[in-house]
Design a protein that fits this description.
20 helices
Length: about 425
C-alpha cells in the first residue's frame, strides 16, 4: 500500500493535500480533530531537523579533500560566491517587499533580537561553544552549525573508511527525513484546515505573496546576478549560456525536484558542450551539495518573513550575518526534497525566534513547496551546469585559448539533436525491442 502511495509523485500528492485541506477548512471548520495531522507532521520535523542539519554539515565539510587540483578553484569560487550573493539578494528583496505570515498555530512572540553588532557577536560566540550534544537535543542550531564545521574540518584528516561511515550515517538520517516528508500531504491537510478555519482565505492569500517574492528573487538572481558573474568571468554575452542551461537542466529539475536525480542530465550536457570530463565529473557532483543559491534564498526570505510577522526589527549587521549563515547552512541541503526548509530554524534562532515558531514557518514552506521547491531545485541544478561551464571557459581563456560560448552551445544542440535522431532510428527501435 505504501509503495503504491509513493508511486504517485510527491508534488502531485501535495497538490491533492492542498485541495483537500482547503475544502475541509471551508466546509467543516469545526472538525478540529483534523488539525492533529498538522501537529504530528510539524512535531516529526522538529525532532529530526537538528540531527539532519548536523549530519549534512559534518558530511559535506569532511568530503573536501586537501590538495585539490587547481582547475577546480574557479568552480568552487563560483559556487561559494553565488550562494552568498543569492542570500544577499534575498535579504535585499525582503527589505523592499516586507511579507507578514499567518501561522497555522498560535504562537508566542519571540524575544527581541539584539540590535548592536557587539551583542550579536557576543551572543553568537557564547551560544556557539555550548555543549554539542545538548544543542542537538534542544535544537540550538547556531551551536549545531559551529560544531558541525569544527568536527567536519577535523574529519578531513580521518581515514577514508571513517568518512564513509559519516557519509552513510548522514544518508541514513536523510532517508529518515525523507520518510517523514513523504507524509507531507497529510500534514498539509491539517495545517491548511487549521489556517483556513482560523483566519479564512485572507491568511492563505499571504502565502501567495510569499511565493511571488521567492520565485521573483530566484528568477532575478539567476537571470541577472548569475548572468553578471558569467560575464565577469568570460567577457562574453552570458545569456546564450544562461538560457541554454535553464532549458537543458532547469526544466527537468523543476519537475523532478531533486538535484541528485538531475546529475546525469548535467553530466550529459557537459559532454555535449565538450567540457573536460575529469573536471565536470567532480564539479557537477560537488554542485549537488555545495552550490545552493536557491536554498539560501529560501532560508533568508522565509526567516525574515517570520521576523517581520513577529515585529522584530532586523538591523543591517544582523542581516549580513544572516547572509553568511544562510550561505553556509545551505551547503548540503539539496540532498532531499524540501531540505532547505529544515534549515530555517537555524537562521531563525539568530533573531531570537523560538523553535516552535520556526517550525511553523517550515510547515508554511511545505504548503508552498509545490512551487517554491521546484523553482529552487531548478535554480540550483541549472547553476551547477552554468558555473561548471563558466569556470572551464574562464580557465581556458586565462591560459590563452580562444573560447566561443555561442558556437559551443550550437555544437551542443547539434550533438543532442543527432543523438535524439539516432534513438528514433529503426535500428535503435529494433535493438530496444
Amino acid at each position: 500500500m505504501f509503495q503504491r502511495y509513493k508511486s504517485v509523485p510527491l508534488i502531485m500528492r501535495i497538490v491533492i493535500g492542498i485541495i483537500i485541506g482547503a475544502i475541509l477548512g471551508l466546509t467543516v471548520p469545526s472538525w478540529t480533530f483534523i488539525n492533529i495531522l498538522g501537529s504530528l507532521f510539524v512535531g516529526a520535523l522538529k525532532a529530526i531537523a537538528p540531527l539532519l542539519v548536523f549530519m549534512l554539515i559534518l558530511s559535506a565539510i569532511s568530503k573536501y579533500e586537501q590538495g585539490a587540483k587547481n582547475h577546480f578553484s574557479s568552480v568552487v569560487l563560483l559556487y561559494a560566491g553565488a550562494t552568498l550573493i543569492a542570500a544577499l539578494a534575498a535579504v535585499g528583496a525582503s527589505y523592499i517587499f516586507k511579507i507578514h505570515l499567518i501561522f497555522p498555530q498560535a504562537t508566542k512572540i519571540a524575544a527581541k533580537a539584539p540590535q548592536d553588532l557587539g551583542s550579536v557577536i557576543s551572543n553568537l560566540l557564547t551560544n556557539a561553544v555550548s555543549n554539542p550534544i545538548a544543542a542537538i537535543v534542544n535544537a540550538s542550531y547556531l551551536t549545531i552549525l559551529f560544531w558541525g564545521l569544527v568536527i567536519g574540518f577535523g574529519l578531513r584528516h580521518a581515514h577514508q573508511g571513517t568518512k564513509q561511515v559519516i557519509a552513510d550515517f548522514a544518508q541514513t538520517i536523510e532517508r529518515a527525513a525523507q520518510f517523514i516528508i513523504e507524509f507531507a500531504p497529510f500534514g498539509i491537510v491539517g495545517l491548511l484546515h487549521n489556517s483556513i478555519a482560523t483566519t479564512g482565505l485572507a491568511g492563505i492569500a499571504r502565502y501567495g505573496q510569499l511565493v511571488l517574492l521567492l520565485v521573483g528573487t530566484m528568477a532575478f538572481t539567476y537571470l541577472v546576478v548569475y548572468s553578471g558573474m558569467v560575464f565577469l568571468m568570460t567577457h562574453q554575452n552570458p545569456f546564450p549560456l544562461v538560457l541554454w542551461t535553464l532549458k537543458v537542466s532547469g526544466i527537468p529539475a523543476f519537475f523532478t525536484r531533486s538535484s541528485a536525480v538531475n546529475i546525469p542530465i548535467n553530466l550529459q550536457a557537459c559532454a555535449d558542450l565538450g567540457l573536460n570530463e575529469k573536471s565536470y565529473a567532480v564539479s557537477i557532483a560537488l554542485g549537488g551539495t555545495a552550490n545552493s543559491g536557491g536554498a539560501a534564498i529560501t532560508v533568508s526570505i522565509m526567516t525574515l518573513a517570520a521576523a517581520n510577522t513577529l515585529g522584530i526589527h532586523v538591523s543591517f549587521p544582523l542581516a549580513l550575518i544572516l547572509c553568511v549563515l544562510s550561505a553556509v547552512s545551505a551547503t548540503g541541503s539539496s540532498g532531499i526534497a524540501g531540505g532547505s526548509l529544515l534549515l530555517i530554524p537555524m537562521a531563525a534562532s539568530l533573531f531570537g525566534i523560538s523553535n516552535d515558531v520556526a517550525m511553523q514557518v517550515v510547515a508554511i514552506g511545505f504548503i508552498i513547496g509545490v512551487i517554491q521547491d521546484s523553482v529552487e531545485t531548478a535554480v540550483n541544478s541549472a547553476s551547477d551546469l552554468l558555473f561548471t561551464a563558466t569556470a572551464e571557459y574562464h580557465d581556458l581563456m586565462k591560459e590563452g585559448h580562444p573560447v566561443n560560448i555561442r558556437a559551443a552551445i550550437a555544437r551542443a544542440d547539434h550533438h543532442r539533436a543527432q543523438a535524439s535522431d539516432d534513438l528514433k532510428s529503426p535500428a535503435a527501435v529494433e535493438s530496444a525491442e
